[in-house]
Amino acid sequence: MSTPEQHPTPDDAAAEARTREIAAGLAAVRERIARAAREAGRADEPALVVVTKTHPAEDVVRLAGLGVAAVGENRDQEARPKAAAVAEALGDAAPRWHFIGQLQTNKAKHAVRYASVVESVDRPELAEALSRALVLRREREPGVEVPDLECLVQVDVDDRADEDRPEGIGPRGGAAPEDVPALAAAIAALPGLRLGGLMCVAPRGLDPEASFRRLAALGEELRRAHPDASTLSMGMSADLEAAVRAGATQVRIGSDVLGARPAVG
Ligand SMILES: *Cc1c(COP(=O)(O)O)cnc(C)c1O
Q1: Which residue has its alpha carbon closest to ligand 1 atom 13?
Q2: Is 259 in the pocket of ligand 1 (CB under 6 A)?
Q3: What is the distance between the alpha carbons of residues 212 and 238, in angstroms, rounded to a whole number?
Q4: Strand locations in the chain (E)
Q5: Region of residue 247 (phi > 0: left; psi between -120 and 50: alpha; otherwise: beta)
Q6: What is the C-alpha separation between 182 and 129, in angstroms, rounded?
Q7: What is the pTM assigned to this prediction?
Q8: 253 C-alpha to center of ligand 1: Å?
Q9: 128 is in which domain, residue-wise?
Q10: What is the CATH number of the domain that holds 105?
């Protein structure tokens, strides 16, 4: 940062250009969300989670400055130091962290330290590990108010047999639709966890809107047993509009806000 007496450095100029670039991407995505909601005849708009994987903590700080309240990460090794750096820079003004990737049970104790939401709960063992980790954290930090961890059930909405899925796509992350009620009930019953709803990623090679409508139907069923579990997290850069039409309450957008990612990640 330059003080007023200093001339701006090339680094300052690059930092400002990056902020402008993100602001433009964010404005375009917000406009797409608003338009899609309008065209779908919706009175509400889905919440935006900006997916920051592969992008640095500085970009998360920029997003917070632009009013972004929630960011998503899919790898603990990457999210942990990034969340720490953002907390150091912003304190209580840091956005909420949504964990959106495959999570090993032995990483649950890390995730509960920074994540407000785990969107990718796909098996009872993971729910149990998150619950144990959260309860332990409360015991170890009696002076700290640790809210319940919101959990979404990630659903594999792809009906195709593994051998019928496109080349390179093995079994997807996510619980089978028929396993959702039991997993949801387990989450709802575990101490320290709150069942928020459902999440999915549109399977490649299928009509995304049909997949999203499938998740919406599962969500309707879920709310009969759990009326507050109303979150439907679906829609990424390429299929945002289809998700909004199908009733997404939350979209997860990365590249259309922050730019293309390197191939890995
Ligand atoms: C990367 C990722 C996103 C965002 O994808 P974009 O195409 O960059 O918008 C959303 N959800 C999950 C689970 C992801 O891993």
Answers
A1: 100
A2: no
A3: 13
A4: 47-51, 70-73, 96-99, 115-121, 149-154, 193-199, 231-233, 250-253
A5: left
A6: 16
A7: 0.94
A8: 6
A9: 14-157+166-258
A10: 3.20.20.10
Residue by residue, pLDDT tens for the chain (265 residues) are 555 667 888 889 999 999 999 999 999 999 999 999 999 999 999 999 999 999 999 999 999 999 999 999 999 999 999 999 999 999 999 999 999 999 999 999 999 999 999 999 999 999 999 999 999 999 999 999 999 999 999 999 998 888 888 876 666 689 999 999 999 999 999 999 999 999 999 999 999 999 999 999 999 999 999 999 999 999 999 999 999 999 999 999 999 999 998 765 4
Of 66, 74, 116, nearest to 96 by C-alpha is 116
Q: Is the CB of 95 under 6 A from ligand 1?
A: no
Asked, for residue 26, whether it belongs to a domain, the answer is: yes
Q: Which of 106, 107, 124, 37 minimizes the C-alpha distance to 73?
A: 107
CB distance 251 to 236 below 8 Å: yes
Q: Do the domain assignments include residue 3?
A: no
Q: Is residue 245 part of a domain?
A: yes
Chain centroid, CA 258 distance in Å: 15
Are residues 40 and 62 in contact, defined by beta-carbon separation less than 8 angstroms? no
For 230, half-sphere exposure in the C-beta direction (CA atoms, 13 angstrom radius) is 6
- Look at residue 263 and tell me if it is in a domain: no
Say how many Å lie between the CA of residue 136 and the centre of ligand 1: 31
Q: Answer whether 201 contacts ligand 1 (Cβ < 6 A).
A: yes
Query: How many domains are contained in the chain?
Result: 1
Residue 254 Cβ inside 6 Å of ligand 1? The answer reads yes
